[in-house]
Amino acid sequence: MEPGNGTQISEFLLLGLSQALELQSLIFGLFLSMYLVTVLGNLLIILAVSSDSLFHTPMYFFLSNLSLVDICFTSTTIPKMLWNIQTQSKIITYEGCITQMYFFILFGGLDIFLLTVMAYDRFVAICHPLHYIVIMNPWLCGLLVLVSWILSVLNSLLESLMVLGLRFCSDLEIPHFFCELNQVVQLACSDTLSNNIIMYFSAGLLCGGSLAGILYSYSKIISSICVIPSAQGKYKAFSTCASHLSVVSLFYGTVLGVYLSSAASQSSLSSAIASVMYTVVTPMLNPFIYSLRNKDIKGALQRFLGR
């Protein structure tokens, strides 16, 4: 593909969070620590769930998949940023940028789909407890995860192919620490109307549809909990979905915060810092939320680490 000036595109510049030299060591140490905590925390969740037969249930099957996706999601951006800081280079090749963008959209979409599937799982468990085992059978659980992967791959492929059809100008500086789709499209010299339509339609359908499904599930869950006569029964029912509700609130809260702050502020640095919340902080906190609010997970982790 050729840019507007007729020369072959070879690289982009990621301005990101490392513009101040005196802060680079601090940023490197902070993000390296957060990345290691994210990988280790989610990996422990996966190992604990897979090693204990107590957790061979739909809820923990989806949780282990979410932990795997969170590791991959964070790994699409942070290692490259750390490498750029360490080598004092802000360069990412054109091919590397498209690849990073593809996997970022893929795993971001998977995060959204899995959170929706987990909301449906909690809906069936609380609203239809007697039919839970029949409805949430292994075949359906596997199918839900497979469909999530297929839809995420297709969405990511569509977005990436649309970017491949664009022509770019000579100024290829991305004011971010990774190749974010919206930032890359804004650099194009060619008409981006179709890209913007597909980008916003896809985001609205994906995030809006997912959020609508989650809200519907929890409206039914709350209705079912309200008719439980005992306070202890209400607490027990709510505790089974408290961790998931916390993760959903954190994820969608940070995503909405990023886009609202981006709309209110023209500062690229502010936008990049806000993006850190859902690209790094949320995947890092998910294992803590599930382990701290779940006695079974804490027990499994203690047994696993005690081996």
Reconstruct the topology from this structure.
Layout: E1 11-14, H1 24-51, H2 58-75, H3 78-86, E2 91-93, H4 94-127, H5 132-135, H6 138-164, E3 173-174, H7 181-186, H8 193-226, H9 231-264, H10 268-292, H11 295-305
Parallel strand pairs: 1-3
Antiparallel strand pairs: 1-2
Helix pairs in contact: 1-2, 1-3, 1-10, 1-11, 2-4, 2-10, 4-6, 4-8, 4-9, 6-8, 8-9, 9-10
What's the story with the biggest beta sheet?
Answer: 3 strands, mixed
Beta-strand fraction estimate? under 5%
Distance between the termini: 54 Å
Strand order of the largest sheet: 2-1-3
> What spatial form do the alpha-carbon principal axes imply?
globular
Structural class: mainly alpha
Give me the number of helical elements: 11
Are there runs of 5+ residues with pLDDT below 50, and where?
Answer: 1-7
Rg for CA atoms: 21 Å
Question: How much helix is in the residues?
Answer: over 70%
Number of distinct beta strands: 3
Average pLDDT figure: 83
Strand and helix order: EHHHEHHHEHHHHH
